[in-house]
Amino acid sequence: MNHVFKKFPIIISMLFIVSLINSCCPRNISNDYMLSAIAWKQTSAEARALSYQAFGIARYRFDEIKSEYNGSKPLAVIVDIDETVLDNTPFEAALILGDRSHPANLRQWTDKADAPAIPGALDFLNYVNSQGAEIFYLTNRSEKDKTATMKNLTIQNFPNVSETSVVMKTDQPDKTGRIQTIAEKCSIALIIGDSLGDFGGFYSRNLTIEQRAELVESKKDAFGAEYILLPNPMYGDWEKTIYRYQRNLQNSEKRKLLKSVLNAFSR
Ligand SMILES: [Mg+2]
Fold first, then answer.
1. What's the 168 CA to ligand 1 centre distance in angstroms?
2. Distance 67 CA to ligand 1 centre (A)
3. How far is the CA of 139 from the centre of ligand 1 (A)?
4. Both ends of the chain: CA-CA distance in Å?
5. What are the structural domains, with CATH classification, of the chain?
6. pTM of the model
7. How confident is the model at residue 137 (pLDDT cuts 50, 70, 90)?
């Protein structure tokens, strides 16, 4: 008994050190639930083909809209940035391989300005630019990231990158107001994004899975016509919806919630 009491201070000290390590340092957490999404995005020819398909439809629609347009405002195309024209999969892959959670090293990645272009985006936007239409890069990256974002777009040779054409997040993540501001001066031909929130009036935070589906059903004719959507199986509001907008969930909790929404047949 005495022996145990002698060791008691040592045990308490060890517990204190363990809790200190847990509170101050990134924990060893498994991000494996994102593994196949990132592998698909980075390696599948299908992901590449889907990007070409999206920008191919965008060009087809842009030509149609332009040929029918006789308004006085200039035509404009709005593109989201992340996973629409710039590919952040190297950042997502580094999280997986480093066993870290978002947003670890996000600033480092953004400052590097090294995200490659999404296939098809550059050709499409150069075409839009050559046709005399305006281009707006409408992102929910923060104002602090504007210089690095403009640098990244410029390095990748995107056209018409300027202080006014690159529109960062305001106090509102909802893009509707910023789209309306652009619409005051331009006639918006197309909006291209990887998330419903990229399209005006589609801001879907705090909605349920069913409500998001209903929102798309109510405007289904707009997709492929006014709105062009690229695939993003890695992250987005679709994922936050499953987590019921809870932040800082452990990966085990995320995995549990992801499994809970699956629709499986019963044998
Ligand atoms: Mg995006």
1. 12
2. 29
3. 7
4. 57
5. 32-253 (3.40.50.1000)
6. 0.87
7. very high
